[in-house]
Amino acid sequence: MDNSNPTPIPCENSDTSSLETANHKPFWKAIVEIGEKVPIEEWNKLPKDFARNAEHYMYGAPRDEDYEEE
Predict the structure, then answer these.
(1) Under 8 Å CB-to-CB from 47, ≥6 apart: which residues?
(2) 34 — phi, psi (to 5°)?
(3) Distances in Å between the alpha carbon of 27 and those of 16, 22, 32, 42, 64?
(4) CA-CA distance, 32 to 70, in Å (whole number)?
(5) Taking a C-beta distance cutoff of 8 angstroms, is the pair 49, 67 a contact?
(6) Residue 35: pLDDT band with limits 50, 70, 90
(7) 10, 20, 26, 62: which has the fewest Cβ within 10 Å?
(8) What's the rounded Cα separation, in Å, for the pair 23 and 59?
(9) 55-63, long-range: CB < 8 A, 24+ apart
(10) Could you write out the DSSP letters of every residue in 14-64?
């Protein structure tokens, strides 16, 4: 394993500018860029209670019926 140029890991400092180089950007920026490419019509197809009932949608667990849809 070559450790001659390790990737910096931010600790208590929230400044991520040192992580942004020509070859690397924070993973969350890549996620945002991918999300921006998805048409709004596709986002609207997702269940509004997905975060609350993720285990239901992924594994078939019972739904949390306390969710009030807007």
Answers:
(1) 53, 57
(2) -65, -45
(3) 11, 14, 9, 22, 31
(4) 25
(5) yes
(6) very high
(7) 62
(8) 37
(9) none
(10) ---GGG--SS---HHHHHHHHHHHS-HHHHHTS-TTTTTTHHHHHH-PPP-
